[in-house]
Design brief:
Layout (H helix, E strand, L loop, with lengths): L1 E3 L6 H13 L6 H40 L4 E8 L2 H10 L6 H7 L4 E7 L2 H12 L5 E7 L12 E10 L4 E12 H15 L6 H30 L1
Parallel strand pairs: 1-2, 3-6
Antiparallel strand pairs: 2-3, 4-5, 5-6
């Protein structure tokens, strides 16, 4: 049902990343380094727990939908907590301090889940049911399905706040959701490879072809949605 796209917790990686970044900081303090290291370990736990909460909520909705409507809106889910190296690099690129408080305040996609749906209508049905839950707070919404990006990218992006019940406190934690169809996900995967792994010089040709593919996928998905609706009547 879902796939984790990360190692749960790599203490060696965290230690090496933190040591390199903080030792480059003026006035490096070993005690402060240790405290920051512990903070990032705790951060990983809290955000991983928030992903568990979101995954469980979505799975329950999907299972209930099957019982009531004999249809599963979710094809599969992929989730990940941003690696410490990636998180530190993002803080550095933004010119921000290397600490957990700054990361939590400025980076909303530390925890992310990609929800792949079978049909376009499934995306909005799932969004509506999910956001109706009292402990889910919507922080940000961008609909790239109704308003695709110039390159053809389509997906519904949500950032929500989820309460994580810890032993001594409740941590309200942001989680980013990208909800899209199988076709949209296939397109996004190829576009990502073209952008980051393509070593050839014909990038413009690929971009033009991908934009046309995005239009064709949209047309096919609309036809399949209509067929599905007719069958379900």
């Amino acid at each position: 049902m879902y796939v984790d796209r990360k190692p749960s917790l790599d203490l060696v990686e965290i230690k090496e990343s933190m040591s390199k970044k903080l030792k480059e900081t003026e006035g490096f303090n070993s005690l402060a380094y240790f405290d920051t290291l512990v903070d990032f370990v705790e951060l990983n736990h809290v955000y991983s727990s928030a992903l568990e909460e979101v995954t469980t909520k979505l799975k329950i909705l999907d299972d209930e939908f099957q019982v009531i409507h004999q249809h599963n809106p979710i094809h599969h889910m992929e989730r990940r907590v941003k690696s410490t190296q990636s998180l530190l690099s993002k803080l550095e690129r933004k010119g921000l301090e290397i600490n957990v408080a700054t990361a939590k305040e400025n980076i909303l996609d530390i925890a992310g889940i990609r929800v792949i749906c079978n049909y376009i209508e499934d995306i909005y049905v799932l969004e509506s049911l999910f956001l109706k839950q009292e402990d889910v707070k919507l922080l940000k919404r961008k609909d790239y399905i109704e308003n695709p990006k110039e390159n053809g990218y389509r997906s519904l992006h949500l950032v929500v706040s989820i309460p994580v019940f810890l032993s001594e406190k409740i941590a309200h934690t942001p989680v980013e959701l990208q909800i899209r169809t199988i076709g949209m996900d296939m397109w996004a995967s190829l576009e990502h490879k073209m952008r980051y792994k393509n070593t050839k010089r014909n990038t413009e040709t690929y971009q033009t072809a991908l934009l046309e593919c995005a239009r064709q996928i949209s047309d096919v998905e609309e036809k399949m949605q209509n067929m599905h609706n007719e069958i379900e009547k």
